[in-house]
Amino acid sequence: MERVPILKIGDILLVSIQVDMSDQTALQLQEDLAERIVATGSHGVIIDITALDIVDSFVGRMLSTIASISKVLDAETVVVGMRPAVAITLVELGLSLNGIRTALNVERGMELIAAARSDEFEEDDQLDDAADAETTASP
Amino acid sequence: MERVPILKIGDILLVSIQVDMSDQTALQLQEDLAERIVATGSHGVIIDITALDIVDSFVGRMLSTIASISKVLDAETVVVGMRPAVAITLVELGLSLNGIRTALNVERGMELIAAARSDEFEEDDQLDDAADAETTASP
């Protein structure tokens, strides 16, 4: 059985999909990714699909599932490297990649993850500030 | 024909080999890499072989060729993610990966490339200093 390798670069896990995904390979990848996110404490997953000629409903569902799993493990998922023809076919087939962020290439994907993280921290700060304000206001 | 995708991360090109390399795929990868090094001005190439169960003489030669091509284009090549079994087989077969640097994972590979670059700059500086000293010494 083929196994898709997961590369760690700083705070991010990178997966480059190059082989045809079978049910088994897809399940294995989801498991491996979940384990690696927990083991490394990574905050982002980048999935590169440069090599894919077609993204059918099976692959689309796999990407959505990975994004959902990562989300509950506190990691952002970004799909990068989609070919123009793949994007056109996706829209024509009426497939929407639910809950998946996309970026043009790996570098932009990394920027997107970094931006998403800093937004989150700012929101946390605002909540903290609001809480502080309340504490101060109360007698 | 399958084409191995080349990802750009900062100053480095990253290739993850997951498919069986045919003559044609190997040639295409060498061409694509040479073009991308020139187009992007990258200083390093990282080749991930986590997915490979076997590195035979064909793959070994391909890696050596890529390293040589990159070298003349002023880029360092580092092979990362070699499995223990692959390393053992390589030695047993008497294959030496000529001119190829290796590192345990992508992150260490990046460090190796950064270190190799700074060594080079230091040597250049020393040459410059020597030239300066000569110029100063001459009347």
Concise account of the structure shown:
The structure is a homodimer of 139-residue chains. With 139 residues, chain A is an alpha/beta fold.
Low-confidence stretches of chain A: none
Provide the CATH topology of chain A: Transcription Regulator spoIIAA
Structural class of chain A: alpha/beta
Order of helices and strands of chain A: EEHEHEHEH
Question: What oligomeric state do these chains adopt?
Answer: homodimer
Number of domains of chain A: 1
Determine the most extensive contact between two protein chains. Answer: A-B, 20 and 20 residues
Largest sheet of chain A: 5 strands, mixed
Overall description:
Two copies of one chain form a homodimer. By secondary structure, the first copy, chain A, is an alpha/beta fold. Chain A has a single domain, classed as STAS domain (Transcription Regulator spoIIAA, 2-Layer Sandwich). Chain A is 54% helix and 16% strand. The first copy, chain A, has helices at residues 23-40, 57-72, 84-92, 106-137; strands at 6-9, 12-16, 44-48, 76-80, 101-103. Chain A starts with 5 loop residues before the first strand and ends with a helix. At the A-B interface, β1 and α4 of A face β1 and α4 of B. Chains A, B: Residues 2-113 form the STAS domain. Chains A, B: Residues 119-139 are annotated as: Disordered. Chains A, B: It holds the Pfam family STAS. Chains A, B: This is STAS domain-containing protein.
